[in-house]
Amino acid sequence: MTAFQQRVRQLQTALQSAETFAAKHPRALTASVVGALSCFAVTAFGIAPLAPDAAELPRRTVVETLATPDIEAQLEALATHAIGLTRAEATRSSDTPDSLLRRAGAFDAAAAAFLRTDPLARRLLQGRAGKMVHVTADASGRVQQIVARFPAEKSEQASSHFTRLTIARDGERFSARTETAPLQAQIALGSGSIRTSLFAATDDANIPDAIASQMADMFSGDIDFHRELRKGDRFSLVYETLTADGEPVQWDGGAGRLLAAEFTNNGRTYSAVYFKDSASGKASFYGFDGQSKRRAFLASPMEFSRVTSGFAMRFHPIHKTWRQHNGVDYGAPTGTAVRTVGDGVVEMAGWQNGFGNVVHVRHAGDRTTVYAHLSKIDVKKGQRIEQGQRIGAVGSTGWATGPHLHFEFRVGGRHVDPRVIARASEAVTLPNYAKAQFQQVVASVKTQLSVAQTVDGISAAD
């Protein structure tokens, strides 16, 4: 009797037992079970005989000889293969061609001489330090290739392109060429908490200063970063980083745009997202509720600085008398960029007694802002300027004991506290036709921000 026939007999016995049980217990459920078993048994009996017994299937053994690669030939090919080692470095202000190559593990007098004499190759160590350099050398230290990346030299391309300088060896000779290529953007996530200052916290989280400044701008209408930061305040953000040939850009401007952020200040959380209206092309920061974070006036004429004297009575450091201080003084190094806090027209740009170099900007609603003690003026009388545009640089001209910016806000000729005006100024509104697109952007960044809260400065491919 075959194995298959034994199995069929077992199923028939089980079926008879089930029928006997069903006769004693005539319930609907029992009948259903028996019916299922009956169907299974009949089906098995009807189909199984068509298949041959596995033991009766024919068997065949296949033997195939595989060719073994020639080991000697592989070793010879490996011996003739030139090994190139590549090392990444950043140029330093004190670098010479020899010191840069030595730091990269290359010892090549001919390459160093080429870097000193060739007009294109000399650009590697000219200008500002911090250029990204990849040096490829063979096992003996002879340079095979040098690739350097640095900001595009044309000002209109500086924020979107980079220059690639390639120096290649061909026998005993070298050649150099340059080309301009677009920077690529990637998405980065970061979070941190305030212990001492905003920039100390963003440094700890490996977040670029440019992104920290944008975050201060984003929430400037909600938080006074000069006076209201608290230890334990937290932030999370989503921003762009720029790469050149896949390498993160280290030079100034290497950070892209802040895309979204959340900031918890003194127990209250503020959220905002960067949104560009596809129809008008205008962009701004908006709260998740669709209310614009951009107001008619910024809270500060500088991206970030410290208030050294507020809008109040004070003892004048030069006249040695108590006087009303009709503005706000911001301490900052000479040369720090000063920006206009709102759209307007330059009413005056020049020297004015104790103010030294000063700029007056007239805004809508009979409002005027004043920027004094500048070391440099970058605008002219009658020029129309936009909010955030650079108008000069911090200095100590006129009656000043040190480098700082004296900033005033006047309404109808009357002095008012600039920090109060910024918060009370009207907000820019989101057009109705853009609200659906805006909600899609908000939904996307909310997910990213929830991830950012658990990490410190990680990156994710765009």
From TrEMBL:
**Domain M23ase beta-sheet core residues, every copy:** 324-418
Q: Does the keyword Ligase apply?
A: no
Q: Which domain of life is it from?
A: Bacteria
Instruction: List the transmembrane segments.
Output: 28-51
Q: Which CDD domains match?
A: M23_peptidase
Q: Keyword Metal-binding: yes or no? A: yes
Keywords on record? Hydrolase, Membrane, Metal-binding, Metalloprotease, Protease, Transmembrane, Transmembrane helix, Zinc
The cofactor named in the record is: Zn(2+)
Q: InterPro entries, per this entry?
A: Cell_wall_metabolism_enzyme, Dup_hybrid_motif, M23ase_b-sheet_dom
Q: What is this protein called?
A: Peptidoglycan DD-metalloendopeptidase family protein
Q: Name the source organism.
A: Pelomonas margarita
